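ligand=NAP
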Amino acid sequence: MKIYRDSDPEVSPALIQSKKIAIIGYGNQGHAHALNLRDSGVGELVIALRAGSKSREVVTAAGFKIMGLEEAAAWADITMLLTPDEGLGDLYEDVLKDNLKSGAAIGFAHGLAIRFGMVKPRDDLDVIMVAPKGPGRTLRALYLDNLGMPTLIAVEQDVSGIAKSLAISYAAALGAGRAGIIESSFAEECETDLFTEQAVLCGGMPALVRAAFEILVERGYTPEVAYIECLHELKQVVDLMWEGGLEHMDMAISNTAEFGGYRAGEKLVTPALRKKMEEILDDVQSGKFVKEFLADTKAGHPYLEKNRERDRSHEIERAGKTIRALMPWLGDQAKK
Ligand SMILES: NC(=O)c1ccc[n+]([C@@H]2O[C@H](COP(=O)([O-])OP(=O)(O)OC[C@H]3O[C@@H](n4cnc5c(N)ncnc54)[C@H](OP(=O)(O)O)[C@@H]3O)[C@@H](O)[C@H]2O)c1
């Protein structure tokens, strides 16, 4: 595995500074990429928005030049596709394919659209991935603190002969070289990302939190106390694992918590549960998951909406509002 850092001679924003960059979308990733690139000295940078975009005002307020999608694709040396994954196939086919200039590069922050063939790039384009491993707002906050976010890079097509250098330079301009710019592939990034967000980060962990909260409340405990135990404290434990790994966490918690944790972990992660996790990875690798996701998108997201409503109206949300109101400093990072 190759990891590049700012101290390596290849890692410099200079190459990207010499290119015209169009960022499509000004959402979670788009705003962070745009602001970090500009602060890293990228001068020729535009934000490409669709007609009637609700992001127009905030992009203008941030001082960026706005272009239409077709115009930006024809102008840019590198077009970064930072809009929701489920729409990337149509965006490429309907707007970009016939407008990107010959020899240009397109870039992604996630491997999905290439791994599952939603975007089939023209042969004359460089195709790169620069995938920061975390939310856009954290990417921006770290940059402002002179820190960086580990970022995976990959090259799918290298027509220019410098596609990898473009990816490294773009990642450097995001500030990633302060942490690590890690060589990977579209497939590895996509499959590991989908599996872990489903099995652990956005699937397994929130489902455990909900279930534990429900059990405590059903047994008559106070919802606000249950919220603190199940959700609020989660961050403190995750922070320990994040700072120094499992051993570091084991040393920082009480023997009671550690003993109970091992005992409960054995009860929960049984061979049957591991099999379920394997099935989740199978569904990712086979494309079954992506097929279901795209079908839900086509139908107007009924599955997403049903589950969003379930979360919105869950009692843990009401209890959480009460507790979070006691700590107005929560979320300060988001204001940066
Ligand atoms: N969320 C994260 O922080 C994160 C982390 C790592 C990687 N990624 C990857 O980064 C990419 C972008 O994800 P995201 O969460 O940043 O997206 P997002 O916040 O949902 O993107 C919203 C932006 O995309 C624009 N947009 C939506 N559909 C569009 C279309 N059909 N044509 C043109 N513009 C369109 C929106 O424009 P309007 O203002 O007009 O609505 C808005 O500016 C994805 O590949 C994702 O997997 C995301």
